[in-house]
Amino acid sequence: MFETLKAQAPDKILSLMAQYKEDPRSTKIDLGVGVYKDASGLTPVMRAVKSAEHALWEAQDSKSYVGLTGDPAFSDAMVKLVLGDAVPRNTVAAAATPGGTGAVRQAFEMIRMANPKARVFVSDPTWPNHVSIVQYLGIEMVPYRYFDSETRSVSFDAMIADLKTATKNDVILLHGCCHNPTGANLTMDQWAEVIKVLQETGATPMVDIAYQGFGDGLDADAEATRAVAAAVPECLIAASCSKNFGVYRERTGILMVVAADTGAFALNQGTLAFLNRQNFSFPPDHGARVVTMILTDDALRADWQAELEDVRLGMLELRKQLAGELKRLSNSDRFDFLAEHRGMFSRLGTTPEMVEKLRVDHGIYMVGDSRMNIAGLNANTIPVLARAIIDAGI
Ligand code: LMR
User: Fold this and answer.
1) In the predicted model, is pLDDT for residue 261 greater than 90?
2) Where would I find the Aminotransferase class I/classII large domain in this sequence (predicted)?
């Protein structure tokens, strides 16, 4: 029967990973998949994660099932981390999911269940897997303008104009911080405008926050998500621990559903449990447990925050160095946007042909839309990349 299947196009980000691996050049530079790397190219296990895993190994006496929505202590810790005190805890239904992708998938499923005609507005561009999952689920997608490829900043007026066309039957997907793939983010004043549009249209916001702590700091990165949640009756939040805890392969994420009042909580919580059961039953526990241990222990938490802050500042420094080197070589400020962007990514703003040329000629791997993972750079590769960009005439 399977001969009826049609070959699926490979995921562009993940196939780039494989291509990079196969490239024999020792000078190759990986700016592809969104994984943090230190100066030596390693994606380290964070210190607090190692300590928590060690303690867990000592203390854990069962691997029996936990619960369909995961350990409630994980939900409590994550709701606090992401939402702070923005909304009453008893209005937030939450379920652990396999990574941030699992949370995104469950959110879309919940939307479709609630209203099969709901449209999902996504930024143009957005993380390709948003588009892929929305389409896979047969949900209508409406792109909204987001990125100005001239200034490499947010095309704010166009964004607002497009968002105003949403209705109360629609969902608007927003990146809570560190926009993927562009690196261009809204100011808090601009978020206030977006919130006004959400209130005027009655559209339901869905916030994807996968990089909290990678932009301007743990609380600063959550500020917009908190403001949105506090300002509207209902919202969905998909959060990931993959990057800020470095637990990529453990698949640790959470979907939160904020309700207008405590009345809807039970229905939302029950729906999340049902959806988990249909798709995978129990969510992975190991990463979630480690994250909970870190967030609820003062010493582990302090160590985690310190290491995360080092990671964040390290990426900011790389941004500054790259922008500085390009300023020097180009004798212009047209690459200053690299220092303005936040998070792991920046969209360079060049053609797929140019991206391909950088790969073929220099072994520089970035996603076809010219998204670069800034964490893939180090002091030695910055001059190489800058020179290649200038020589290519970008
Ligand atoms: C990315 O955007 O590179 C990451 O979120 C990894 C992924 O799953 O695509």
Assistant:
1) no
2) 27-389
